[in-house]
Amino acid sequence: MKVHLIRATGYPVENFNHVLNLLRKHRGSIEFVPSEPVTLPESSDFKIYEDSDAFEKKEAPKLDFSMKESRMANYSRITFPHKEKVMTWNQLFQIAKDFRKKNQLPKEDHVILLTDQSNEHNWFGCFDDTLKNYFIQTNHWNYYFGTDLDSRFPIAYEISAWIMRSMMFRSQVDTLNHLHKEPRGCMMDFCAKKPQIILKMRTGDLCNDCMKVLTERDVNRSHARQLFTIMDGLRENLLFRERSLLLMENSKMEIRGLSKRIFLSDLGDLEINLNPKEKALYFLYLNHPEGIMRSHLVDHRAELRSHYAMLSNQASNQSIDLAIDRLIDITDNNMNEVMARIRGKFRLAVGEQQYQVYSIMSSPEGTHKILLNRELVHYLT
To answer: Hey, where are the domains in the chain?
Structure first.
């Protein structure tokens, strides 16, 4: 089975790649195929949510069911009344259909649009009645969960869950009629309150009733096995992230390949995308757990230059030398700027409470250092 993931231009490519990495971590008979970004048409339709209760309700489309879902929220990010552009489900499905037609995809292929465009019924995802064209909404996760939940996890979970549903059920109506109004820790829980989605992610499973549906409808076992493995992986990563704060555990860091890509393997293979200058400075400090004083950085010029020359695409030695000279010049603010960008990227990736372990931070002794235990750092060729 091929699943084509298409990114709307408003959804950052870095976030898209993180989700793709989570899905591809567990290989199998389902192939996740990234595609060129698409630009959604400008919507002229708006919805005005007068208060948080209106914003938190999931509306029922005109299908044979009448359930509604409310959403819990972190109210600090949206003030009410709140006006938001929306697109209809059919408009979003049409993006997937147009992509399918343009690329002449086989009818058995699946096409999933990842978009930060809100939709008319305020859902986080759905498929059309062919069960082959989908949208997954990528925004508002931080509204509900703040920085406590990495949005990659629910987005990857939603992708996996909707693919599983496409194999289990015959239509939108068939799917919705099997939803559980009361949560069971099952993929088919309706989740009247958004935090209940975390319950589903923590179990990554189906209840006995839904497992019976899975068996009776004779779904492809290989596909189902891979999707369960992905959801198990998401559950493990989510639990590791939650427990790491309590147990003071940190993720293993893997430095991979000649380009020295940085991954936090226990956090869903989360990649930290540093540019060549940031990597050069980071690897220097990674090699010196004792720390380096700002004024002593010049003493490590040769090592710093070696890292940068290997990683950068600078065309000349002169360009490399100029970049390194700026970095070590105590009268230049370049090093502080580079360190700030590194800290910002780790903060965005692992959250406010953990980023200082992985970043280059100042110490009481007057040095800068990376606190991460070097036994957790592994270099892979």
So the answer is: 2-246, 253-380
